[in-house]
Amino acid sequence: MGVEVSVSGLTKSFGSQNIWRDVSLTLPTGEVSALLGPSGTGKSVFLKTLIGLLHPEQGSVIVDGTDITQCSAKELYEIRKLFGVLFQDGALFGSMSLFDNIAFPLREHTKKKEDEVRDIVMEKIDLVGLTGAEDKLPGEISGGMRKRAGLARALVLDPQIILCDEPDSGLDPVRTAYISQLLIDINAQIDATVLVVTHNINIARTIPDNIGMLFRKELVMFGPREVLLTSEQPVVKQFLSGDRFGPIGMSEEKDSAVAAQEEAMAAAGISGGGTKDDFTEIIPQVQPNPGMPERKAIARHRQRVLELLPTLPPDAQEAVRRGMAEEDEIRAENRARDHSGLVPDDAPTAPLRVVGGRTQSV
Ligand SMILES: Nc1ncnc2c1ncn2[C@@H]1O[C@H](COP(=O)(O)OP(=O)(O)OP(=O)(O)O)[C@@H](O)[C@H]1O
Ligand SMILES: [Mg+2]
Fold first, then answer.
1. SMART domains given for it (predicted)?
2. Alpha carbon distance 187, 169 (integer Å)
3. Beta partners for 14?
C-alpha cells in the first residue's frame, strides 16, 4: 500500500534565484500523478526536494506522518527506504555493472543473501527488458538502456512511493509505451503512490490520475486528470495540446506584442502546430494489462472527482461523465475477458490497448 505525500507552502531558491514558491499539493495514496511544465521550471528540483536531497527555505513535505524538511538524518534515511527514484539522468554508478547498480539498494538497505539479491535483480532486469546486458557498464549502453536500468533500480525495494523523472526521455515510442504500461501495472500490483515528470503529452493524457503544472515559478494547477484535461486554463491547455500559441514561449516569458501577433496569426487561420484532438472529450486512461489486478486507487479517485464535479463548468461535467462511463465499459470488458480464460498467464505486455473499438498507442 502506498503512502500519501503532502507538500505545503514549499519554496526553493538557489542563492538569489527563486525556482518556485508556495507550492502545495497532495499526492494521494496509491494514485499516479504527473508533473508537467516547461523545461527549466524546476520539476527535477521538486522531485529532489521530495526526498530531502535538496532543502527548501519554506514549507513542509509530510511523508508517512514525518516532515522530511525538519527530521533528523537518521529519520530521513529510514523514510528514503519508502521511495524508489528514477533520476532524469539515470544517476548510475559509472564504474559498476548494471547488475551491481540495480543490486545496490538491496545490498545497502536489506540483509538479503546474495542468491536472493540475484533473483530480485534479474527479475527487475527482465521487467525493463535488459536481460543479457547485466554485466555491461553504464558507459557501454545506450541512453535509453541507462534509463531503463535506472527504473529497474528504482523498483528493487518494492517502493511505496515511486518518483520518475522523465521515464520516457531518450526512449523510442514503443519502449515508451512499455514503460508507461509497466508503471500502471506496478501500481495495480502494489498500490504504490507514483509521481512522473514528463513532457510527453500522450503519457500526460492517458497515464496519471492527477496532473500538476509548474509555470513561472508557481504550481498553476494540480488536481484530478478529469479537471485538467477539460480545463480552459491557458497554460494547461497550451501545454497539453503542444501548441506554439499561448502563454508559454521559447524562453518561458512572452511579451504582450508577441501575444498580440499570435492572436492575429490564429485569427488568420495560421496553425500553432498543436494537436487538433478534441479537448471536449477525456481520453480513457490506460488500464492494467490482462491478468493484472484492478487498480485500487480507481475507486478512491472516482469518489474525489464525483465530489468535485458540481464545481466544474457544465461542459466539463458532461465530458467527465462520458469519460467515466467509457472507462467503466472498458473495465467491464477487461474483467469479462480475464474471467473468460482467454488470456494465458504469461500473456505478453502489450504496448497497444483497445479503447472502445479504437486502437490507441500510449
Ligand atoms: N544544484 C543546483 N544548484 C543551482 N541551481 C540549480 C541546481 N539544480 C537546479 N538548478 C537550477 O534550477 C532550475 C530548475 O532546474 P530543473 O532541473 O529542476 O528544471 P526542470 O524543470 O527539471 O527542466 P527539464 O524539463 O529541462 O528537465 C534551473 O534554472 C537550474 O539551473
Ligand atoms: Mg528535469
1. AAA
2. 21
3. 17
| pLDDT digit string, tens, across residues 172-211 | 888 888 888 888 988 998 899 999 999 888 888 889 999 9
Give the span between the Cα atoms of 314 and 310, in whole angstroms: 8
CA of 38, closest atom in ligand 1: 25
Amino acid, res. 210: N
Q: Please indicate, yes or no, if residue 227 is contained in any of the structural domains.
A: no
Mean pLDDT over 97-115 rounds to 93
CATH number where 206 lies: 3.40.50.300
279 burial level (CB within 10 Å; 0-12, 13-18, 19+): middle
d(CA 234, CA 21): 20
CA of 346 to the centre of ligand 1 (A): 42
Phi, psi of 27 (to 5 degrees): -85, 110
SS3 letters across 232-281: CCHHHHHHHHCCCCCCCECCECCCHHHHHHHHHHHHCCCCCCCCCCCCCC
Q: What distance in Å separates the CA atoms of residue 31 and residue 208, rounded to the nearest whole number? A: 8
d(CA 332, CA 17): 51
The response to whether residue 37 sits with its C-beta less than 6 Å from ligand 1 reads yes
Average pLDDT on 338-355 reads: 50
Q: What is the pTM of this model?
A: 0.85
Residue nearest to atom 26 of ligand 1 (CA): 39
Asked if the model's pLDDT at residue 352 lies above 60, the reply is no
Q: In the structure grid, which three cell numbers stand for residue 86, read together?
A: 528514477
Position 358 in a domain? no
- Residue with the smallest CA separation from ligand 1 atom 29 is 40
C-alpha cell at 236: 494547461
The number of distinct structural domains making up the chain is 1
Domain of 201? 5-222
The answer to whether residue 281 is domain-embedded is no
Q: What is the pLDDT of residues 11-39, one digit of tens each?
A: 999 999 999 999 999 999 999 999 998 88
Residue 315 lies in a domain: no
C-alpha cell read off for 71: 527530521
pLDDT tens-place string over residues 241-279: 777 777 777 665 666 777 777 777 777 777 777 766 666
